[in-house]
Amino acid sequence: MAKSKFEYVRDFEADDRCLPNCWVVVRLDGRGFHRFAEQHGFKKPNDDRALQLMNRSAQTVMEELEDIVIAYGQSDEFSFVFKKKSNWFKRRTSKFMTHVVSQFASSYVFYWKDYFQDQPLLYPPGFDGRVVLYPSDQNLKDYLSWRQADCHINNLYNTVFWTLVQRSSLTPEQAQKRLQGTLAGDKNEILFSEFNINYNNEPLIHRKGTVLIWQKVNHVTMKRIKIPKDPAEKEVEVTRTRSTVVLLHCDIIGDQFWEQYPEILSDDS
Amino acid sequence: MAKSKFEYVRDFEADDRCLPNCWVVVRLDGRGFHRFAEQHGFKKPNDDRALQLMNRSAQTVMEELEDIVIAYGQSDEFSFVFKKKSNWFKRRTSKFMTHVVSQFASSYVFYWKDYFQDQPLLYPPGFDGRVVLYPSDQNLKDYLSWRQADCHINNLYNTVFWTLVQRSSLTPEQAQKRLQGTLAGDKNEILFSEFNINYNNEPLIHRKGTVLIWQKVNHVTMKRIKIPKDPAEKEVEVTRTRSTVVLLHCDIIGDQFWEQYPEILSDDS
Amino acid sequence: MAKSKFEYVRDFEADDRCLPNCWVVVRLDGRGFHRFAEQHGFKKPNDDRALQLMNRSAQTVMEELEDIVIAYGQSDEFSFVFKKKSNWFKRRTSKFMTHVVSQFASSYVFYWKDYFQDQPLLYPPGFDGRVVLYPSDQNLKDYLSWRQADCHINNLYNTVFWTLVQRSSLTPEQAQKRLQGTLAGDKNEILFSEFNINYNNEPLIHRKGTVLIWQKVNHVTMKRIKIPKDPAEKEVEVTRTRSTVVLLHCDIIGDQFWEQYPEILSDDS
Amino acid sequence: MAKSKFEYVRDFEADDRCLPNCWVVVRLDGRGFHRFAEQHGFKKPNDDRALQLMNRSAQTVMEELEDIVIAYGQSDEFSFVFKKKSNWFKRRTSKFMTHVVSQFASSYVFYWKDYFQDQPLLYPPGFDGRVVLYPSDQNLKDYLSWRQADCHINNLYNTVFWTLVQRSSLTPEQAQKRLQGTLAGDKNEILFSEFNINYNNEPLIHRKGTVLIWQKVNHVTMKRIKIPKDPAEKEVEVTRTRSTVVLLHCDIIGDQFWEQYPEILSDDS
Fold first, then answer.
1. Per-residue model confidence as pLDDT tens digits over C40-67
2. Do B213 and B70 form a contact (C-beta atoms < 8 A)?
3. What is the ipTM metric for this complex?
4. The domain that contains B106 carries what CATH number?
5. Nearest CA in chain C to A17
6. What range defines the domain where residue D49 resides?
7. pLDDT lower than 50: segments of chain B
8. Which of D77, D83, D112, D115 is CA-nearest to residue D96?
9. How many Å apart are CA B182 and CA B190, to the nearest integer?
10. Residue C101: inside a domain, yes or no?
11. H helices of D22-84, where?
12. How far is B250 from chain A (nearest CA, A)?
């Protein structure tokens, strides 16, 4: 068979292994989600169904793939952090990013109907992804802080913007103009004085995004046992400890989070 | 806002642009599709519903993304070829591969029910992908020939193997043993003399896989026009030429295919 | 011995193999050669000793390393082209560039005294280098054309500039101002009308730079032979054909050069 | 001028910036130094002139280039460590390695006559180089330990081997056979019991290699000053502190070295 004659083309594949001993971050973004959100009637500034579907898809990625120790999501983006010592698929860059985005994308469509009962999915959405390496724990924490700071900035803006549009009957252009050059304090002030909204009381999921980590959780189940020489079966409680993905909506910029969950950055994670 | 303090982490992103003037090939593979096929009752050796779903997903990738001039698929893999001069997303490697695999994965779930009416999708499947560059037209043709030769080798083997299992009541182990060391001619002979099967009459989609290319197609539609001073509307035929993805199940190893479709390799494609 | 404990650090070395079937170009540049030229009394606008030393060093690189089919140099830079099919050191990028620059640098110091008899070398000079891949023959020809066009532009400018400074007693600032915004034709005109210099009669090595290629050359040597039954030895001429590096100062932008030396781009070179 | 037409070839240069916040190590090796050593009459197992010339060349590299905080050499190899935060030439991989090897190679030839007065340099030697990144301080220390452990292993072997050849009149083949399968303790025992050599008394430069670091050194110079209203000039001592490259031949595997010179790994270095 002529196979051998063509097989030389395999040598054109580049070795794309990630530098060892670095945190491997895969970040994905929805493709054209501005239009996608409009076509599927996403609520503004935040659609909780859409956020929950993102979180559900991210949870699937964490459960299906190996070595992910933390994930962080907001809006239409999600970041997944593989542990420093991960040797999954020999640390090949392409494997990390394609497994993450394909699992996320198929999960997004698969779980759509669980969150959007009345809104059919009109077409299959796309996502892009990239891999970034961070050598030190501080670099990684700063990366995640960067994303959460971005969440805060965008959400504060969007909250004021859509409140102006929805409750003051400003056109989008007028609202945009109104907000030009305003600082965070100004925006808080507009919300409070004009709409009696205390931004700090807005839902944490909107202000902080979503953090996914692994936690040991006790599962209590009933188990039937048979005691020798006792004709009757009995039921006893059995407690099992299992690692489970848990969702948090908390600050990850300050030290408190990392002090509370030191195992995330530990080598054994 | 503390944004600027963290923004330095952006500098850790590597520039991963593909070398210009090379064919950019993205190949994707199903993750754990052996098990996936069993769990979803795929017919052996070939499940036409599964192949058609792969093709439908690949078609969506070609239509949604830019600059793909040809795609080739077989079994649970698909290769997409971006044109040499493509400058899509500045030729970033990560963009090419993540857009392809995410669009493919979401389409696979989205269109599942169109092909597997009686078989619900049990969980969202994953795919991996990679990018390979080919500098010359001959390298690219040899790459595609390599994949089609692989299709032939695997399909011939699988056809004999499953015929032995399904019609001779051999166990899989016995069938495997029977085929050990056999050449293509031996396998053809088993099929013909024992089961009266001429392998060359097997369906082309199984033997050759699927090729997707762009073709100009005439679309004839009726259009209502109004002629001035004539109170009645009239209907006329309007012919429009549009580029459409067409599916072929033909040989792409020989020269004939490339002579028939010279525009695929031309710079203007 | 504790060796094994540390040996894991080898895994941090990245595989940096060049894409197969591409021309591999290594270009080197003198580091801080403006200052180097001044300190070593280089003549302006061109110092023939310095150019010849560059050429001698480049010749050594071609002779010592493998698979270089053409080299082109001008001013304090030199480009070396490894053939497409080269598998020297498994095409490792780092090997290509470090062998070229180190051999060039050591040769530059080694041969200095052959060209600068009265001018001692004051300190060891540095060079930097890079690797660039070109997939097609046209890309490679355009690369070399780019460097020769650069040579022409710079040499025309420098010729007028230094003629103004040396023969019109303009200060460098005045000469620079005089030339601001002038086109090639203007510069030719200044040289001709003010200094009676026809730029086209300037030495080819200055206007075109230096091309190094391999040529078969006949070497005629005398050899003593002894004829049986004849007591006396006789001397006969023996002609041997050997590949030798030859230096040319010719145009490589037009087609003529490539038509005259088709073996440079041929796969067998 | 046709320049613009060709300038597109610049886009084929890849961006090869090193990941930030990692130690950048450039290691160089002599090319064909086995033969080079023989042709230049290097003493076996160690030629002090050759080692000193290597060290002199490495010192020049440290002084001429920027951001090198430590270098380590043995035999015909040398490693240079650029500080984590270095932004020299935007951290381009090619710049790091080509500047190091070219400066080393030209220095080697330039300073040759200072160490090999009676032995002319027969031809310009070559070196190859590579860049390796190390994310953590421990990784870097382990890298340097790996090289020093290698020095120890090779030097112990070579010391016994050449003692057997030079003082027992064994042929190289016989000496090699004698040493096959011996451990470090066996080799020490051969040296001590047969030749009365205590390996631990061998020169440190042979057993440990050479470490180059920056140290603040006081330079005391005399300066003439003139005191107002005093007609006579006076000479006073002036002490200046300057950073100088110093050579050490000490253990760098244990903690002591790093505790003694904490500034090497500090961010401010």
1. 999 999 999 999 999 999 999 999 999 9
2. yes
3. 0.92
4. 3.30.70.3000
5. C14
6. 15-208
7. 1-2, 269
8. D83
9. 10
10. yes
11. 33-39, 48-64
12. 17
